[in-house]
Every structure is written in C-alpha cells, then in structure tokens.
Amino acid sequence: MHVAEVARALDLLGVFAFAVNGAFTAVEKTRVDIVGILSLGIITALGGGIIRDLCIGSVPPAAFTDRYYLGIAAGGALLAFFVSRLPRLLQRPMLVLDAIGLSVFAVSGAQKALAFGLSPAPAILLGAVTAVGGGTIRDVLIREVPSVLSSGLYAIPAIIGATITVLTVAYDPRLAVWGAVVGAVVCFVIRMLGLRYNVDAPTGLRRGERHG
After folding, report:
1. Which residues form the Glycine transporter domain (predicted)?
2. Which of 38, 98, 108, 159 is the most exposed place for a label (fewest CB within 10 A)?
3. 191, 102 Cβ separation under 8 angstroms
4. Prediction pTM value
C-alpha cells in the first residue's frame, strides 16, 4: 500500500474515532440538542486536520474536498448520539476512542507534513497539532480546560508517535508504513497507561506550595 493511501486511511480512522468521542463528550458534559452534538463531533473530528492542511498549504483542506471526511464525521457523531442513550456505556468508549484518534492523527499528520516537504521538526509539531487540535477546539467551545493543557500524557504521546513516524521515514522511506503503525501503537499505549495509572507530566508549583 502506498504511503499516501496509508496516511488517508489513518486520517479517516481518526475522523471516525474523534467524531464519536466528540459527540459522546457533548452528551456527557453539555445540554445541547442533536445539532449541537453533531457540530461538536464534526469539529472534534476535522479541526486538527484543517489546521494542519492550512499550515502546510494544502488548500482547500481535505475535509472540504474529500466527501468521505465529512460523511464519516457526521456518521460517527450520529452513531454516538444514538448509543449515548445508554449512559453506562459512555465512559470507557470515550477514553479509548480519544486515544485512538490521538494516535492515528499524530502519525498521519506527520506523514502528510513530510509529503509536503517539511523538515522533521515541523512535521513532528504538525503531527501533534493534528492530534490535539480538534479536541482543543471542542473543549474551548464547551468551556472545559483543553486536555492538551490539563493532561500531561496527552500531547506527549502524540509527539512521541509523530517522532517515531518521522524518524522512521528519515532512516528509510520504504519503512514509512511500519513507522506509522509503530508510532500509532506506541502513542496509544502511552496514553492508555497514563489514564490507567493516572500519570501526568510534572507541573509547576503554585505560589502557596513553594514554601509549604
């Protein structure tokens, strides 16, 4: 399979995962109607990719030119809307789908940045932006502190996954597909371990804690 096809497949998987996650989040944390749920699901799914495409000059963004992106995002959000009527099923799928979306967007974002001629460091950065962008926009809209700012093991796994992808391509472009798979798996595992054991990156001390 060609690298571009792999990147697109990962992108679409991330779109579905984040659409479902974004809609689940809307149901759990807001009182919006079905239009609001669909909107938040689609924004979560497509926001990071749109930011990435605008940064690398891929315009109009794939979300507006490839009908599958919007269709899969809307379908995922609708699925979440109907499944959300069973509240006990929400928590675990939200976390897993968020980790899946984070992982596949990190590597697909880095791959697309490399395909547009960016050097490794910007490609890694855009991989992370692709992974966290949509969720950050969603959290701002529902007045939540974005996960990228409140959870140390959110952006970090995305950066690690994107780095593995980029370094693999730099070593041997023929291994790009394997690099994407390994990068996504490593990102997913780190994120889930962080959630399982409640691990975060070190934070700064508040003023009252410095001399306590």
Report:
1. 9-84, 96-168
2. 159
3. yes
4. 0.89
